User: Which sequence fits this backbone?
């Protein structure tokens, strides 16, 4: 055991005071969130995956547009026909249907539609130079598996070569429940009276590269009234925690980013020297600058070299030694 | 030597012990000189990593400060690493700013540690 001798350290200045200590700096964050009210069950909570204020920039929306019907706009394929045709039954399976249209009807046969539910094929035949868009839409109105979504120009006459196309898929049919994230907006697409909040939760959490996590799902079924336009996630913050203070006669507070203010219980008349060091289990490009303020306090400033700025860093211990004149 | 008057340092805690010293390191990290009592510096055979091993198990480590000195100024600084009270060790890291990494650099590392019983 070592043995200390004499009266300890001496300073060539009357009435010197010595203060030393250290404290840990940690960062904790709260994640932004939004609660979607569910009329018939437990609310869904959508929470940003990362903590901090950045999550507040995310939005959440819910639209009751699930199980959309696949459709085909004839104006994209034809010169004269401009009707938009849709599948009678929605869902992703409605994308399987194909339509072929040609001038295959004989004189006086008008528009005829042949539907093959097994192979999901529709064939529309019309009379070249005779059948009109109105005739076409009338025939579609009598079909089993397709319907007119948007009417076209009824008087336009269909012509061979101009209004013929082969086996083109309908598109735009969607699942009962699905979710997407684009431009910071997480959107849940659900189906009125069909989507459970469990399914909604699964869809949101299944977004590839998604920024949020949904909780609260249950067997409750969503209703159209649960839809919301884009709503801000809120409550995301980053806060600095100071802990494990060792040393007597001082306290520490944080007046700004990367700045830690040591305040003495008994002020010094003047300072002789202040030293401080950053302690971190894994070395980093951080160092601590000292900034005397008055006899009662001084600041320790944590500088991040690569960021070229004062910075709050987690997992850091700040150590200091200060000698002043009491 | 001129006669000077010194005054005892007033502390706010009892049983304080200051253990301090310095040591020279060369460009390869080897410790070439050590001055001070109470701890032995060693190179950890990894660029920029050094370790003080204290002679005794002192009390609570109140504070530690480490500084790096160099005859020709450079963009290196010393940083404290992990303290292991059981093993009586305190790691010291030498950071090179332009290299953005730990690095060896010839110079002197000054260390001061305050313990409290």
Assistant:
């Amino acid at each position: 055991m070592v043995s200390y001798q004499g009266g300890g350290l001496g300073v060539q200045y009357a009435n010197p005071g010595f203060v030393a200590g250290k404290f840990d700096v940690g960062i904790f964050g709260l994640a932004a969130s939004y609660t979607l009210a569910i009329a018939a069950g437990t609310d869904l909570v959508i929470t940003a995956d990362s903590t901090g204020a950045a999550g507040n920039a995310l939005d959440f929306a819910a639209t009751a547009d699930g199980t959309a019907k696949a459709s085909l706009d004839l104006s994209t394929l034809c010169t004269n026909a401009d009707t938009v045709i849709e599948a009678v039954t929605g869902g992703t399976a409605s994308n399987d249907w194909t339509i072929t249209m040609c001038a295959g009807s004989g004189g006086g046969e008008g528009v005829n539609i042949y539907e093959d539910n097994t192979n999901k094929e529709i064939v529309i035949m019309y009379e070249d130079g005779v059948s009109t868009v109105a005739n076409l839409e009338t025939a579609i109105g009598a079909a089993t598996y397709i319907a007119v979504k948007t009417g076209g120009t009824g008087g336009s006459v269909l012509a061979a070569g101009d209004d013929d196309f082969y086996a083109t898929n309908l598109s735009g049919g969607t699942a009962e429940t699905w979710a997407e994230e684009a431009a910071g907006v997480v959107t849940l697409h659900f189906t009125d009276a069909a989507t459970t909040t469990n399914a909604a939760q699964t869809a949101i959490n299944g977004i590839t590269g998604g920024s949020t996590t949904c909780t609260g799902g249950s067997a409750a079924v969503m209703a159209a009234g649960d839809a919301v336009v884009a709503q801000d996630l809120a409550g995301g913050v980053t806060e600095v925690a100071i802990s494990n203070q060792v040393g007597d006669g001082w306290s520490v507070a944080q007046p700004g980013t990367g700045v830690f203010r040591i305040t003495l219980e008994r002020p010094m008349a003047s300072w002789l020297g202040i030293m401080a060091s950053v302690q971190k289990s894994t070395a980093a490009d951080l160092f601590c600058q000292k900034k005397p303020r008055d006899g009662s306090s001084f600041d320790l400033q944590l500088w991040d070299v690569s960021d070229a700025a004062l910075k709050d860093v987690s997992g850091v211990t700040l150590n200091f030694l200060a000698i002043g004149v009491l | 030597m001129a006669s000077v008057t010194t005054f005892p340092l007033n502390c706010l805690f009892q049983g304080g012990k200051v253990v301090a010293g310095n040591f020279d390191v060369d460009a390869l990290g080897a410790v070439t000189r050590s001055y001070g009592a109470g701890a032995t510096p060693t190179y950890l055979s990894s660029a920029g990593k050094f370790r003080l091993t204290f002679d005794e198990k002192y009390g609570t480590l109140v504070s530690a400060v480490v500084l790096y000195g160099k005859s020709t100024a450079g963009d290196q600084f010393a940083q404290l690493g992990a303290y292991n009270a059981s093993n009586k060790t305190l790691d010291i890291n030498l950071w090179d700013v332009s290299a953005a990494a730990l690095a060896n650099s010839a110079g002197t590392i000054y260390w001061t540690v305050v313990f409290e019983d």
Notes: The first strand of chain B starts at residue 7 and ends at 8. Chain B touches chain A through 41 residues (CB under 8 Å). The mean pLDDT of chain B is 91. Residues 4 and 10 of chain B are 19 Å apart (CA to CA).
